[in-house]
Write a structure and sequence with these properties.
globular, four-stranded antiparallel sheet, about 35% helix, 2 domains, alpha/beta
Length: about 260
C-alpha cells in the first residue's frame, strides 16, 4: 500500500483548473520529485494535501486513512510536514524556538499548565528543548549550540532554508514535502541541500516529495519523477525517462515547430 495516494484530485480557482484529475502516489522510503513549468499546479497539489486548500473532488489517503478535508494542524498530526516556496520562519524568535514550534502538535500540557509552571509542563518543555537540539544536531556545524539563542532573522538565506527543514523535522513526520528547497541558492548551496535531502531519507527514514526546478537536485535524489502541466500529470518514471519525454520537453520549451525556417 502506498504511504500517500491521490486519486482523481481536482482543485479549481474560478475557471482555472489548478489541479485537474491528478493521480499520484508515493511509497514508503521513496524520494519523488514533482516538476513542471510555473503554473503547472505543483504547489496547489501540496496545499491540498496539507489542508491549506480543500479539494473540489478526489481522494487523498495517507498511511491507510482518508485525509482530504483535514485542517493543516490535523494533517501535521497524522505525520505529514512541509516547507514553503517562500521561507516562513518566525524571524523574531530564536533558532531553537523556531524548531520547538514544530513540536506544538505533539504537546499535551496545555496553556494552563505552562502558565502555572506545573511539573508536567516543565518536563514537557525540557523534552521539547532536547528534541529541538537533536534535530539541529542533524545539520552538523550549521547550527552549533552557541547560535541556538540567536534570532532566526539574522541567519543567512541558506541557513533559514535549512532551519525551515529542521522545524518540519521536529514534527516527527513520516512524509516530508519540500517546496522548491533550493530556490535562491547558489550552486554550492544547492549541492549541500541535495546531500541533505538524501540524508533525510537514508539516515532518518523519511519519505520525501520534492517540488523543484533545479534539475541537478531532481537528478541527484529522485527515485521517481512526476511531471505536471496545466494541472494534469503528463509523465511519470525515472529521471531519464521523464527528462526525455516529448510532452515534458514541450511543456518546458513550447511545442516544436516542424520545418521552421
Amino acid at each position: 500500500m502506498p504511504l500517500l495516494e491521490i486519486n482523481a484530485l481536482h482543485k479549481h480557482f474560478g475557471g482555472v483548473a489548478a489541479v485537474d484529475g491528478v493521480d499520484f502516489h508515493v511509497d514508503a522510503g521513496e524520494i519523488v520529485s514533482v516538476i513542471g513549468p510555473n503554473g503547472a499546479g505543483k504547489t496547489t497539489m501540496f496545499n491540498v494535501v496539507t489542508g491549506f486548500n480543500h479539494p473540489d473532488s478526489g481522494e487523498i489517503s495517507f498511511d491507510g486513512r482518508r485525509i482530504d478535508g483535514l485542517k493543516p494542524n490535523q494533517v501535521t498530526s497524522v505525520g505529514i510536514a512541509r516547507t514553503f516556496q517562500a521561507v516562513r520562519l518566525f524571524p523574531n524568535m530564536t533558532v531553537i524556538e523556531n524548531v520547538m514550534v514544530g513540536q506544538h502538535p505533539r504537546t499535551r500540557a496545555g496553556m494552563l499548565g505552562a502558565v502555572l509552571g506545573l511539573p508536567g509542563a516543565r518536563r514537557e518543555e525540557r523534552d521539547i528543548t532536547q528534541r529541538a537540539r537533536e534535530v539541529l544536531g542533524f545539520f552538523g556545524d550549521r547550527f552549533p549550540q552557541e547560535i541556538e539563542d540567536e534570532y532566526a532573522g539574522g541567519l543567512s538565506y541558506a541557513d533559514r532554508r535549512r532551519l525551515e527543514v529542521a522545524r518540519a523535522m521536529a514534527t516527527d513526520p513520516k512524509l516530508l514535502l519540500l517546496d522548491e528547497p533550493t530556490a535562491g541558492m547558489n550552486p554550492a548551496e544547492t549541492e549541500g541541500l541535495t546531500k541533505l535531502v538524501g540524508r533525510l531519507r537514508d539516515d532518518i527514514g523519511l519519505t520525501i516529495i520534492v517540488i523543484e526546478h533545479d534539475m541537478r537536485l531532481v537528478k541527484g535524489v529522485s527515485d521517481r519523477v512526476v511531471a505536471l502541466d496545466y494541472g494534469k500529470k503528463i509523465a511519470e518514471g525515472t529521471y531519464s525517462e521523464v527528462a526525455s519525454d516529448q510532452h515534458v520537453i514541450e511543456a518546458y520549451l513550447g511545442t516544436r515547430q516542424e520545418n521552421a525556417s
